[in-house]
């Protein structure tokens, strides 16, 4: 006789219950979803002892006929799908036809249900999956399901249920997810005979969120996000990092995909990575704590599979990479926009300056001073040493008539020769002429450098302070990443190729790392050949590296790279950050007003203009309001 037997219905149901029903909250989930599918506009959840003793769900939905009320306890009995194709285009919450028989098999279960057409209601009772009785009764249209003593017949599982508050919390969270998704349904939650929640039906998600989170959920703390392309759309709210302390006791990390609450690592890490460059600004978010978000994502059904988890809280994305990119970009754009709005007046002011504006009076004053005491460059090297000498370049004159070239607009030219078409003669008449020009044509912006390190710029409602090195680092970093991505590096050929034997402290692993990543070095702008014995030859370098310094800078970059590689595994990020750091103007370096303007202008064309590549802030704003508070002009 064969050994294989078909399991009895009872055993099969209990096995299914093991997957579908994990805890009281799972029962609430399955029953509430059935109520939603039955078009209920009112759902009442009543609990005792965190749901461990009683879970009762009452709805005013379509109800079931006597016949349906009986058959719904058969396994795979569902009114929601008929064919396999239906699963792809499913609009209902349930479809597996497993919940009711599973729940009935592990509890004392009672169902009372009535349709609008029927005069009388049907009442059915089960214990441990066995039918107790079925009878006619009176009730209003809709369905009430009572589940008592969950897992009473599986002691091992009952024992593993958590404390009353923990089980209650799971249910509470679930009711929150659903009530956000379905604001037009009124939800009531009663626990141990006390009313805990009462959310009346409303017409908008926002109003429902206010009901749930109170005033801590407000425009003040959250930024609205919306983005829509062909196959995917996203909207919702993400926490503003400037306002990190709404009174939530909990993390609110809600992702809904096609109207289901979903746990999805891909989407979670997309949001996390978008936030990352902004987070170091606030201690609050350290230790891996992520700001709150409530995001609704809609993806065309063909692109996802919801049938991968018995409780349908996970999905499989067919094109996870694209969804990751899309979500990350949407969140990043939104956060950037919020930062832009904060610094808008700076940006507007900067972009309103025409790039070939004449020298301002004070600039000419500097020029005049320098002219009196010309300071020749300390050393002349064959390599271009633009940044080091930028100041000298700016004020070293080509000939006696001091005629300048027309401005170049790219950043490389910023540190090269200055840019004025008209010859400047330093006489009083000229000064007055320019003064007039300034007065008539544009209002000069107040911008100055402090300690040759920080740029102060007056804006409409206060002033901004910019860290010049970090700002330039950000600009260079983004450019370098782009040149890696697009493989079109801006290179300069070295007059004398650099041949180096890597010093011992670098040779250990760096030689191998360079060898493995020659292509990325190439995309950055370094043309490198490696030889045996830890030696290499470089004959092209990124144009942004203007202070090549006979090659010392390359060793500095490698040192930095070693450091960066301890922070990230992504070689592109590490190498771009290292080169950016060494290619950027330094703290302590004097900049002309025009250089400062150009720097800020360029900064605001960056993707993330507010943080250096390591996530440290590079700009902050002091408002007039704050200043007035300090002077106790206002309180
Ligand atoms: P599924 O939801 O996957 O179809 P269930 O076991 O949860 O499977 O429910 C089986 C069927 O019972 C449903 O398809 C539905 O027709 C009916 N049903 C369950 N709960 C309700 C309810 N609250 N109101 C009306 N019909 C219900
Ligand atoms: Mg169901």
Mean pLDDT: 79
Task: Categorize the overall geometry.
Answer: elongated
Number of distinct beta strands:
22
Bound molecules: adenosine-5'-diphosphate, magnesium ion
Q: Uncertain spans, ≥5 residues at pLDDT below 50?
A: 353-442
What structural class do the secondary elements suggest?
alpha+beta
Using only C-alpha atoms, the radius of gyration works out to: 34 Å
Number of helices: 22
Beta percentage is: 15-25%
- The proportion of residues forming helix, as a percent range, comes to 25-40%
Largest β-sheet summary: 8 strands, mixed
The strand order across the widest sheet is 5-4-3-6-2-1-7-8
**Span of the ends, CA to CA:** 91 Å
Can you put this structure into words, describing what you see?
This protein is α+β, with helices and mostly antiparallel strands and about 625 residues long. Helices cover about 40% and strands about 20% of the residues. The strands form five sheets. An eight-stranded mixed β-sheet has the order 5-4-3-6-2-1-7-8. A five-stranded mixed β-sheet has the order 9-10-13-11-12, with helices on both faces. The protein has a four-stranded antiparallel β-sheet with strand order 16-17-18-22. β16 (about 445-450) and β17 (about 455-460) form a beta hairpin. The protein is elongated, with a radius of gyration of 34 Å. The longest helix is centred in the middle third of the chain and has 23 residues, at about 320-340. α2 (about 25-35) runs parallel beside α7. The structure holds adenosine-5'-diphosphate and magnesium ion (MG). Adenosine-5'-diphosphate binds next to α2 and α5.
